[in-house]
Amino acid sequence: MAPAELRTSGPLQAAVVALALGFLLRDAPETDPANTWPYVVAGYGFLAAIVPWLAGGYGPGEFSLRYWSVLGAMFAAPVAAGAWLLGGTPYADLGVAFWGLSALWLVHGAIALARRRRGG
Fold this sequence. Notes:
By secondary structure, this protein is mainly α. It has helices spanning about 5-25, 35-55, 65-85, 90-120. It is built from four helices and no strands. The longest helix has 27 residues, at about 90-120. The chain is elongated, with a radius of gyration of 15 Å.
């Protein structure tokens, strides 16, 4: 698989993980003890989203505003929705981590905007 494809499919996997965990755990009472398996699944989602981007070798179109918009619709919005669903559950800390992961989309946008203004 090409690096650009990994940097697209990884965040999509993270979005699926965040939404799935949010929907599965949204009704868990805050007083219930937390299980370990959601943390393992969320860890996979974080690694799927972050590791391909840290592998390097970015293509010229990966920091375009158009690609950033696609990532917003397909990655940041579902991850933020999953984070919102996890609030008020024993897994609220996972929700905070998912908010942080979706905030990386804003970092990507800032880089895309800076590159566009610079002409690169």
